[in-house]
Amino acid sequence: MAGSNPNAKPMNLTLNVWRQPNRNTQGKIVEYQVKDISPDMSFLEMLDVLNEDLLRGGQDPVAFDHDCREGICGSCDLFINGRSHGPEKGTTTCQLHMRKFSDGDTITIEPWRANAFPVNKDLSVDRSAFDRIIQAGGYVSVNTGGAPDGNEIPIPKDISDRAFEAATCIGCGACVAACKNSSAMLFVSAKVSQLALLPQGQVERKTRVENMVARMDIEGFGACSNIGSCAAECPVGISLENIAILNREFLAAKAVSNNLA
Questions:
Q1: pTM > 0.70: yes or no
Q2: Beta bridge mates, 31
Q3: Distance between CA atoms of residues 116 and 216, nearest Å
Q4: What are phi and psi of 125, to 5 degrees?
Q5: Which residues form a coiled coil (predicted)?
Q6: How many Cβ atoms from other residues are within 10 Å of residue 139's Cβ?
Q7: Cα–Cα distance between 34 and 14 in angstroms, integer?
Q8: Do residues 137 and 218 make contact, with C-beta atoms less than 8 angstroms apart?
Q9: What is the SS3 assignment for 237?
Q10: 16: CB partners within 8 A, 6+ apart
Q11: What count of other Cβ atoms lies within 10 Å of the Cβ of residue 178?
Q12: 4 pLDDT tier (thresholds 50, 70, 90)
């Protein structure tokens, strides 16, 4: 393994893993033992080792979501020892290394817990509710033909920086899993803020926030109570300031809206 420490002592771990055949079946915690785990492994590599052991024993492997394994795609949505993505701040599960744990540890691994994120199987959840929220308003209208290139529109650096910071949201759902109300406000606010701050997003500015908030409610996400656990567990550091921006945008839109719902 590239960059591994040859002097690192392998670990033996106890894993309490949520197993659930499908969304219509009751799940339960099942205990497994994994041995000779290198501290230089990523958390997902450790799960790969578990699944190899299960397959060799003729058992069904543990289903979990993953793709890039580079902290970019946001699909590695695991609840580890009661925390979204595990114990290391600002880190996705795929970038979490086993050196954060100790030999003999017991690790509890669960899927995101939210009505809007139904479990597909084991640790894999359906996060398509986020996609539908984005579809409700996360786009911009532009004139075709002789329209100027977007990069030619002057934008103050502080504005572009704030929009970029909001755009770093990877849509993993850690904010929802960390929130006691399963609120999606941090996710939605990041998407709304990103476009509301930029000149390209002004055409749909008012309808966008109305439609996305309405879709969020339809999907069954809870209300925000400003506890801040969402921002504390966000792996890319999305700020609570975006929720304040979302609230202002929503009130401004409702003040002139024909939709009184």
A1: yes
A2: 16
A3: 9
A4: -120, 155
A5: none
A6: 13
A7: 7
A8: no
A9: coil
A10: 29, 30, 31, 106, 107, 108, 109
A11: 25
A12: low
Does the pLDDT value for residue 148 go beyond 80? no
Asked whether the beta carbons of 132 and 219 are under 8 A apart, the reply is: yes
Task: Take residue 84 and report the two structure tokens written for it.
Answer: 């979204």
- pLDDT for position 170: 97
> What pLDDT, on the 0 to 100 scale, is given for residue 165?
96
pLDDT at 141: 81
Place of tokens 């999305």: 238
Say if strands 106-110 and 28-37 run parallel, antiparallel, or are unpaired.
Answer: unpaired
Spatial contact of 199 and 152, defined as CB atoms under 8 Å apart: no
DSSP H or E segment with residue 233 = helix 229-233
Tens of pLDDT along 201-251? 999 999 999 999 999 999 999 999 999 999 999 999 999 999 999 999 999
Mean of pLDDT over the chain: 93
DSSP string, 163-205: HHHHHT-----HHHHHSTT-B-HHHHHHHHHHHHSSGGGSTTH
Write the DSSP symbol of residue 93: G
Q: Is 85 exposed, middle or buried (0-12, 13-18, 19+ CB in 10 A)?
A: buried
- Write out pLDDT tens, residues 82-104: 999 999 999 999 999 999 999 99
Residues 6+ apart with CB under 8 A from 144: none
- CA pair distance 191, 76, nearest whole angstrom: 20
| Residue listed under structure tokens 């309808």 | 207
pLDDT (0 to 100) of residue 139: 80
Reported confidence tier of residue 20, pLDDT bands at 50, 70, 90: very high
In 3D space, the residue among 232, 235, 246, 251 whose CA is nearest the CA of residue 194 turns out to be 246
Task: Report which residue type is found at 47.
Answer: L
Helix (H, G, I), strand (E, B) or coil at 222: strand
